[in-house]
Amino acid sequence: MKKKHVLLGFIAFVLMACQPEPLKINFPKTDLTDVAIIPKPVSVDPTHSAFGLHQNITVSTNLQTDSLQELSAYLSKSLESLLGNDTIQRESPFKIHLYILDSIAELDSAESYQLEIQEEGLHIRSKTTEGVFRGIQTLLQLIPEKSNDTLAPFKIWPIPSGMIQDAPQYAYRGTMLDVARHFFTVEEVKKHMDILSFYKINVLHLHLSDDQGWRIEIKSWPKLAEVGGQTEVGGTPGGYYTQEDYKEIVAYAQKKFITIVPEIDMPGHTNAASLAYPLLDGTGKTIKPYTGMRVGFSSFNTRDEAVYAFIDDVVREIAELTPGPYLHIGGDESHATKKVDYNYFVERVEGIVKSHGKKMMGWDEIATTNLSSETVVQFWNNTENALKAAQNKNQIVISLAKKMYLDMKYDADSKFGLDWAGLIPVDSAYTWYPDKYVKGLEPKNILGLEAPLWSETISNSAELEYLAYPRVIGHAELAWSKPEHLNWAEYRKRLGKHTRHLERLNVNFYRSTLVDWE
Ligand code: TNX
Hints:
Strand content: 15-25%
Distance between the termini: 72 Å
CATH architecture of the largest domain: Alpha-Beta Barrel
Number of strands: 16
CATH topology of the largest domain: TIM Barrel
Helix content: 25-40%
Largest sheet: 8 strands, parallel, barrel
Bound molecules: ligand TNX
Shape: elongated
Number of helices: 17
């Protein structure tokens, strides 16, 4: 009897001894607040240890929903491309957990997330997959560039431990790309979204038509793209998105939690449309292709019912392809349209957009008409218009030209860009408070920010990136972070530490001398 006990005890001991020891790593002291996160989170509380990120790490989720599984696969793939693959498949001692939860008080908005980093595990929690995606972007910024090969029998990328609580200041954090003055391919637009989403930008507004080109296939009016799509500024061949191309952009945007806002600019900026269908212009004059850079010379015939039938078709087709809530009708610089006609036009088109289930957006000039309070006004130039919109209870997207126009030159030596709204160096794009900029506008009037990139002087990814980055990264922070956290001296240091991220994403950013690029 006794002998049997001893034997059993011995077997138990041997079994226990054969179990691998739980891996204990002695991390050097860390400080989570030292990591350069852009946009700056609401709070970062360090606990001075680390999580041992390594190759082939397991990502687990608390729900089996397709969307969360997809995010988990996306994170695994991102980690694999950052860290490389381990040839030895090992059982992971530490895990990353993604959770969708209802019950955490701090997670108030859809995009709020918590990122908790402990030695035993790294946890991202949010109410929505969107929030988890934003948290993943933060996590990707925390990963050190080089592994530490001395802490464990395998490579470790230690992530400083602690708690990050985060939520956006504004729900709408956008940028616009003008694909009309110069055409940009689907691949170029996708690459732009890869970079934008890394900085938590969640809206891409596509300026799809202008005097120089019409860029989206409309099946009921095929000549818009076939004829109107051929030209661009400078006389080089233009191009257009087929509906399949556009769907591909929209689907890619959804994966990056970006809302596409399509814009068909009217009643001005319509030479390309009228070139395809002269009835739209209605003056009887011969329309010629336009490849210059002037604005304000074209108009639809606002008193012809055929024009509204046309707009109904265009809006219907685009609305069907667009899951996002907004459809932008331009409305800017309609200098060739009489004011009464302009008012009549905007009000009619607002009804058409609504009838197809979308919220209308337009440049600030539309605030001079009798708008429904659901329409969103994009304030680019005229403060009076912005105040009028606020009075009318319209939500406002701030795109202030002298601070946010990405097509303005950085300085007199800039290789690309215009300068009508002034030069915008990297610090000037960042050092202002959107909620205080216009006296009389209150935070509750502001839906968010959007930095437009007009493309008269640029025609490919390298040129686009030169003008957009790094300025739009600063705008992303203005839109996401708490106003009390905005500080140029501190931001420029963080931005300098993002060289490695920008190089990894293959961004042709402008190396402004105002920033010490590491
Ligand atoms: C103004 S901003 C425009 C565009 C030009 C841009 C050039 C706005 C609503 N209209 O048509 O491309 O300036 O910076």
